[in-house]
Design brief:
Layout: H1 3-11, H2 13-17, H3 23-62, H4 68-72, E1 75-76, E2 81-82, H5 85-116, H6 122-135, H7 139-162, H8 174-198, H9 202-210, H10 215-243, H11 247-250, H12 272-281, H13 286-325
Antiparallel strand pairs: 1-2
Helix pairs in contact: 3-13, 5-8, 5-10, 6-8, 7-8, 8-10, 9-10, 10-13, 12-13
Length: about 325
């Protein structure tokens, strides 16, 4: 057979029409798509249903307990009466200090890894591996780390150096608990910021450098504003995780019962998450404290939602202000 003839027949309309139909493959693809859509949709519905069940149970058990007295009074009668005001204040201050410590350090680390570190840098690889390993450490281990490093080592050093050995900072306190949570949430901020910086087009950096800007000016005035949405997203995730953590602060500052408010960074404090744990496991009368337990859990959820909404609103307004400038 002539090769030219066979090629011509292969590309001719008659030869193309003589090919067998591929309807079965199309049909199987359609079935696979439907199965994929059904499976993923069912998984989403199951997750939403679980969330709805949890929220419904907490709201049903805690809504009746919410009142001005419950939110503004200190616990009393062995925490079987009174309110949770010291725990609310302690949680807000702790979350704020944690955010102040974690976000700048995480953003600075991500900027170095993305903008300054060479692609084959050994230090950058070590830092990334360390961050990945840090994200997988159990939270209770962070509590032991905070007790051993911040309280026993750093705190004792400060007491010996500045206070003549008097016990001032070498004890569980608000400062050490916030720094422990900052270390816990640091991987979230670093990873989110690094991804946001990588999403900034390279052309923007090149254009800024071509116009005579230094690398520092390019990062501060071009890269970081473009990546601000992703950076704030990382901060929101860090706040969400840190606000509800209990294990790290059990050893570093949270108090079982402390009706007065913290006035210094080296004071102990009450925390909503730890208060829920105490009421659920160490209460002398679980049935009597159950309404307070549900009310505290509901307040913790509402507080976390409010902190997230504040961060989301700040991110939206910041994006709106930056768009006209860019």
């Amino acid at each position: 057979m002539n090769p030219a003839t066979s090629v011509a027949e292969a590309v001719s309309p008659e030869a193309a029409s003589a090919r067998p139909a591929r309807a079965p493959f199309v049909r199987r693809d359609g079935i696979a798509d439907k199965l994929l859509v059904g499976g993923t949709g069912a998984a989403s519905v199951v997750m939403l249903a679980m969330l709805a069940i949890v929220l419904f149970d907490i709201v049903r058990g805690g809504a009746a307990k919410l009142s001005f007295e419950f939110l503004s009074e200190a616990p009393s009668n062995g925490m079987t009466a009174g309110g949770i005001f010291p725990a609310i204040v302690g949680t807000v201050i702790l979350t704020f200090l944690m955010t102040v410590a974690a976000v700048p350090a995480g953003v600075a680390t991500a900027v170095y890894l993305t903008e300054y570190a060479p692609s084959q840098s050994t230090l950058a690889r070590v830092v990334r591996v360390s961050i990945a390993n840090l994200a997988g450490v159990p939270s209770i281990v962070f509590g032991l780390f905070g007790l051993g490093f911040f309280v026993s080592t750093i705190g004792r050093t400060i007491d010996v150096t500045m206070f003549g050995g008097e016990l001032t900072f070498a004890r569980p306190s608000l400062l050490w608990a916030a720094l422990t949570l900052a270390v816990l949430t640091l991987p979230v901020v670093v990873v989110a910021t690094e991804e946001a910086l990588r999403a900034v087009p390279r052309e923007l950096r090149d254009a800024s450098l071509a116009l005579g800007a230094t690398r520092f000016e390019t990062i501060v005035r071009v890269v970081l504003p473009e990546a601000l949405g992703g950076i704030l997203t990382g901060a929101i995730l860090a706040v969400s995780r840190g606000a509800g953590e209990v294990a790290p602060i059990m050893f570093t500052g949270a108090a079982y019962f402390l009706p007065q408010l913290p006035s210094h960074l080296n004071d102990a404090f009450m925390n909503l998450g730890y208060h829920v744990y105490v009421l659920a496991t160490q209460s002398p009368d679980v049935e009597k404290t159950k309404p307070i337990l549900y009310g505290t859990a509901l307040v913790l959820l509402l507080l976390t939602f409010c902190l997230n909404m504040v961060a989301v609103t700040l991110r939206s307004r910041t994006r709106g202000k930056l768009k006209p400038a860019l």
